[in-house]
């Protein structure tokens, strides 16, 4: 980084500020309180056509305070963690609490659920990177991609590197801290033929900068992805099997988790309400969360309520085995927190994987989807309709790229129609998955 960031000193400072806020809230009349504080610093570089476009050095901090007066809740936040600001923020939260209605589900998570074991999950790997070094890495990525024959121009390469500290504390006496880092490099390129222009990209991301892919490899792979899209046509209209590539399949997992989230369930805004224990996927499919995985992109020993995280099996042998619950949503559903305040962490498939070439053979004639557009997913009904791009496959072989078409179905029907999972696991995000082959979807093309 170009500016010093002492993560340990920040951790100590934020912890002290959180304890100060809790003590003040108690003195001013709160029955209970919780505090979340964070500070992040990073560098962002973007280059285009061998020129530096932007250099951004960022430093963000904030503190959020929630107080409970009986079962009335008030929250306020500030970007200033100084003592005067903390007092003003606590007073504002208390003022809000006095005007809100009582909520029987409001309050801290139960004290016995607080995390006691806070292991080092190895998620903090700072990168001593100067601005000049960051620029050169981005330029090297772009140069490698632009040098590939057929690439007409670059839409830019970007590098980002950041680290931060977060602290959560509450009046149960819990105080948890975590230092973390995240680094990424991406490149987007453009190619053109008689049919028009196409663009695509590739990227690498990791907690540890030593585990990023080589910049030149990212550029070359971005070029290959771009060139394979030239000559795109519209596919035929009809009902066909559809293969979602890993990046698109992770979106299907995201839709599933949204439907399993406690907030959607107690609002009756999910197509999976009252479905615990029912069959949703084939018997061979499972999905679990591993929040304490070493170096995981979303690893944490405690959730946003201070509750200890644990391995959760959301889908077991095709059946819904667990919802995704915070302390509040669990109370609304008369259940117990699953340690998921703030979402799921490190989702992993528990299922047999099929080599990608065999998956194409099983696809036969149909579509491979590599890009989705639009927001056509109804969480209440599960209805699914998205614009898409990808490739048309016949007899297990790619024939030509396709674009300007729509795929439609229903998530429950799609999950039940899952035929196989690919071994092409994408590990760059918090959802690790390979390609998903769905037996049939409606395609609106030419």
TrEMBL record:
Domain of life of the organism encoding this protein: Bacteria
Start and end residues of each Metalloprotease TldD/E N-terminal domain: 33-97
EC number: 3.4.24.-
SUPFAM superfamilies in the cross-refs: Putative modulator of DNA gyrase, PmbA/TldD
Pfam families referenced in this protein's UniProt entry, alphabetically: PmbA_TldD_1st, PmbA_TldD_2nd, PmbA_TldD_3rd
Keywords attached to this entry: Hydrolase, Metalloprotease, Protease
Boundaries of every Metalloprotease TldD/E central domain copy: 125-230
Ranges where the Metalloprotease TldD/E C-terminal domain occurs: 237-445
UniProt GO molecular function: metallopeptidase activity
Class of enzymatic activity (EC top level): hydrolase
Keyword Hydrolase: yes
NCBIfam families attached to this UniProt entry: PRK11040.1
Family: Belongs to the peptidase U62 family.
UniProt protein name: Metalloprotease PmbA
């Amino acid at each position: 980084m170009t500016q010093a960031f002492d993560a340990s000193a920040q951790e100590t400072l934020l912890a002290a500020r959180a304890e100060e806020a809790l003590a003040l809230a108690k003195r001013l009349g709160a029955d209970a309180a919780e505090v979340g504080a964070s500070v992040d610093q990073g560098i962002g570089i973007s280059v285009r056509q061998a020129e530096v476009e932007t250099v951004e050095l960022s430093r963000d901090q904030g503190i959020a305070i929630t107080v409970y007066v009986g079962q009335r809740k008030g929250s306020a936040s500030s970007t200033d963690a100084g003592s005067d600001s903390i007092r003003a923020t606590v007073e504002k939260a208390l003022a809000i609490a006095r005007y809100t209605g009582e909520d029987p589900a409001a309050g801290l998570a139960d004290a016995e659920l607080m995390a006691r074991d806070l292991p080092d999950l190895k998620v903090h790997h700072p990168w001593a990177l100067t601005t000049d070094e960051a620029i050169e890495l981005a330029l090297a990525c772009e140069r490698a991609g632009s040098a590939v024959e057929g690439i007409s121009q670059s839409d830019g390469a970007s590098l980002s590197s950041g680290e931060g500290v977060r602290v959560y504390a509450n009046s149960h006496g819990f105080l948890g801290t975590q230092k973390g880092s995240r680094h990424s490099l991406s490149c987007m390129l453009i190619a053109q033929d008689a049919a028009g222009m196409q663009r695509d990209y590739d990227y690498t991301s990791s907690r540890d900068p030593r585990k990023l892919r080589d910049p030149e490899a990212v550029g070359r792979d971005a070029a290959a992805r771009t060139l394979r899209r030239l000559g795109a046509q519209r596919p035929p209209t009809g009902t066909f099997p559809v293969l979602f590539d890993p990046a698109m399949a992770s979106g299907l997992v995201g839709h599933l988790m949204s439907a399993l989230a406690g907030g959607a369930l107690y609002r009756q805004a999910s197509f999976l309400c009252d479905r615990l224990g029912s069959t949703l996927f084939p018997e061979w499919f499972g999905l679990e969360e591993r929040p304490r995985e070493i170096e995981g992109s979303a690893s944490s020993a405690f959730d946003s309520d201070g509750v200890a995280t644990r391995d959760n099996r959301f889908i077991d042998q095709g059946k819904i085995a667990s919802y995704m619950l915070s302390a509040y949503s669990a109370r609304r559903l008369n259940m117990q927190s699953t340690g998921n305040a703030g979402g799921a962490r490190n989702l992993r498939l528990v299922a047999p994987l099929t080599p990608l070439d065999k998956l194409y053979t099983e696809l036969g004639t149909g579509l491979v989807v590599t890009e989705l557009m639009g927001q056509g997913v109804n969480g209440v009904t599960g209805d699914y309709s998205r614009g898409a791009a990808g490739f048309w496959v016949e007899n297990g072989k790619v024939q030509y790229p396709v674009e300007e078409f729509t795929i439609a179905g229903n998530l429950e029907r799609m999950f039940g129609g899952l035929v196989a999972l690919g071994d092409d696991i994408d590990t760059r995000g918090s959802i690790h998955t390979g390609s998903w082959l769905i037996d049939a979807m409606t395609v609106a093309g030419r």
